[in-house]
């Protein structure tokens, strides 16, 4: 296991993709009116891409024009003080009929928000990173390893 300078376990790309495959809701970070914006979305992983649905008139539809976005998922347990976080960064693109809407219509992607969600958006992750809070045993061994590195 590798740890960052703050003692968090660094997750490899394969584990990040596995976590992305099993979560249902994530947060997309995009630019709206030159300011950062964050919005939760239901999504699925299609191949290696993150796919979600939105309204054609939404802020997300406007942002999905090849611009670079960030997408984050996480899980935390306050009682045990454990958890993990995965961040994917890459271009967001609207999926057109020529770009493969038909295969996406068959995937299990149900939105929670009311209203019509008639536009598929695809994010192709170019950067993928993740961190996990280590269990107490890993923290001690990480601290010991860091202490040895400093000697």
TrEMBL record:
<dbReference type="Pfam" id="PF12900">
    <property type="entry name" value="Pyridox_ox_2"/>
</dbReference>
<protein>
    <submittedName>
        <fullName>Pyridoxamine 5'-phosphate oxidase family protein</fullName>
    </submittedName>
</protein>
<dbReference type="InterPro" id="IPR024747">
    <property type="entry name" value="Pyridox_Oxase-rel"/>
</dbReference>
<dbReference type="InterPro" id="IPR012349">
    <property type="entry name" value="Split_barrel_FMN-bd"/>
</dbReference>
<feature type="region of interest" description="Disordered">
    <location>
        <begin position="131"/>
        <end position="151"/>
    </location>
</feature>
């Amino acid at each position: 296991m590798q740890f960052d300078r703050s003692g968090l376990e660094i997750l490899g790309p394969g584990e990040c993709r596995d976590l992305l495959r099993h979560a249902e809701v994530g947060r997309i970070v995009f630019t709206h009116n030159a300011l950062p914006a964050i919005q939760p979305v239901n999504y699925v992983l299609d191949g290696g891409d993150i796919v979600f649905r939105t309204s054609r008139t939404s802020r997300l539809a406007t942002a999905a024009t090849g611009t670079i976005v960030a997408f984050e998922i996480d899980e935390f347990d306050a009682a045990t003080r454990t958890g993990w976080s995965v961040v994917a960064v890459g271009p967001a693109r609207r999926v057109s009929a020529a770009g493969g809407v038909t295969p996406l219509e068959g995937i299990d992607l149900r939105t929670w928000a009311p209203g019509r969600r008639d536009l598929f958006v695809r994010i192709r992750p170019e950067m993928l990173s993740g961190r996990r809070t280590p269990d107490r045993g890993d923290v001690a061994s990480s601290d010991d390893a860091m202490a040895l590195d400093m000697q």
